[in-house]
């Protein structure tokens, strides 16, 4: 832990943070976005068809 001394003699401890990782998510997030979009469209269409069938 990194410890610093503040005004008045108080000590302040900071936890070590993990190293940052740069991840290439452009490809996978694009596929996930398409799947969610298609799934939402199908769910909406099914709900509309069910509403029409019930009434």
Report on this model:
This protein has a two-stranded antiparallel ribbon with strand order 1-2. The longest helix has 29 residues, at 26-54. The protein has one helix spanning 26-54, and strands at 2-5, 11-14. The protein is elongated and about 75 Å long. A hairpin with a 5-residue loop joins strand 1 and strand 2. The model has no long low-confidence stretch (mean pLDDT 86). Helices cover 53% and strands 15% of the residues. The protein starts with a strand and ends with a helix. The protein has 55 residues and is an alpha+beta fold.
Describe the structure concisely.
The protein is α+β, with helices and mostly antiparallel strands. It has one helix spanning 26-54; strands at 2-5, 11-14.
Mean model confidence by pLDDT: 86
Order of helices and strands: EEH
- Our count of helices gives 1
Strand coverage percent: 5-15%
- Tally of extended strands? 2
* Poorly predicted ranges: none
Radius of gyration from the alpha-carbon trace, in angstroms: 26 Å
For the biggest β-sheet, the strand order reads 1-2
Structural class: alpha+beta
Through-space gap between termini: 66 Å
How would the global form be characterised?
elongated
What is the helix fraction of residues, given as a range?
40-55%
- Sheet having the most strands: 2 strands, antiparallel
Secondary structure blueprint with pairings:
Layout: E1 2-5, E2 11-14, H1 26-54
Notable traits:
alpha+beta, single chain, elongated
């Amino acid at each position: 832990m990194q410890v610093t001394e503040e005004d008045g003699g108080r000590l302040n401890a900071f936890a070590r943070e993990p190293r940052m990782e740069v991840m290439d998510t452009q490809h996978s997030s694009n596929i996930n976005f398409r799947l969610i979009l298609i799934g939402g469209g199908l769910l909406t269409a099914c709900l509309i068809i069910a509403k029409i069938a019930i009434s």
